[in-house]
User: Fold this.
Amino acid sequence: MPVASLSWHLLDTIRFMANESSNPMSTGYPPDHDVDDVVVVGGGIIGLATAWQLLRQRPGSLVTIVEAEADVASHQTSHNSGVLHAGVYYAPGSLKAVLCARGRALMEQFCLDHDIPIDFTGKLVVAVSDAELPGLARLFERSTQNGVPGLRRLDRSELRQIEPAVEGVAAIHSPRTGVLDFAEVARQLAEEVVVLGGTLLTSWPVRSVQSTAEGCIVTGPGGAVRRGRQAVVCAGLQADRLAGDAAKDVRILPFRGSWYRVSQPLADRIRGSIYPVPDPSLPFLGVHLTRRVNGEVWAGPNAFLAFSRRTYKPWAVSPRDSLSSLGYPGFWRFAVANLGTAWTEFSHDVSARAYANSLRQYVPDVRASDLHRGPMGIRAQAMDARGHLIDDFLIRRDGNVLHVLNAPSPAATSSFAIGEFLAEKIDEETP
Assistant:
């Protein structure tokens, strides 16, 4: 799908629960005003960064964030690998490529200013056979066009100097790929939004967002209403449900990703992130390892259809969410075209032995006993009716409302740039 036909895609999750009376984080401008300048739906890192950018660019603006959960960053922001991406994978000129580069710089500065540690462990993308060398060469060319800093091509002996536990015929190395705690960034953003005069309402699940001639109406728990001149909806896994006709040709598919924790002594031998040469037909990266900012090493995540958009338990089922996915024609077209991949992802999900067998082509010493069941996350992935996964960020305007409909990785890395982009879009004349 051409980049021009996409707009973009983001992350972070809004949900339908809690109640209006629970509102531990509420402050900012007086509560008796009639209309906000902007209502931001979603207290994940994208919504928070958007509100932060709006308040910095327009001091004195009336900006309110409404978040379904009792705290910010409860979903995708705090359920990820924590990788600060350098821009290796993305199509040159795409929103992903442009906003990743800008967002990485802004994220690094914010973390520096707020004493949030970033560990630049680096990323090694490994070709394990001669057949993967053309794909590795294409990835190096793409990364070069994206201006990935410090990028190098490595032969077998050079890659072993960087990651002695890894085998491969060649690799590319991105030394400025880092790891950090995005949930901590989100918490710092939430505090700054309040300091800058914004209002943060938690336990405020949004039922609907409507554009009107005068602005917009955001309806929440018990029929409570926030009115705004404009709204930005960063609803993650609920994005299609709040977008109405703006999302009539796409559906959010929830993909569950599970990690394994790697035990010592093998974990001690992994220095950074180890990735395969990606399959260009899929947005999922296959088996990989990441040394996290807390020193743990995680293997994964895999990617398998989730039957609940918000329950972090293996094989949890929500009838509504299951019907949304299984009743969508695009899902079945995608499933039929990717049966082999689905079986591989399923086997990786249920069997540490199967995951270790796949990982062994990169790290020969790994054994199933080195892998222990870890956390899981649920990724919001937009799909069209033909069964194509939307690759780039996707944003659409419905009158006075901007809807973020797709925000896959590197959305967390790009979050400050995405917020900047959305703040600029607010100034555009509505249809």
Remarks:
- Residues 3-76+183-249+392-426 form a domain with the FAD/NAD(P)-binding domain fold (CATH 3.50.50.60).
- Confidence is low (pLDDT under 50) at residues 1-32.
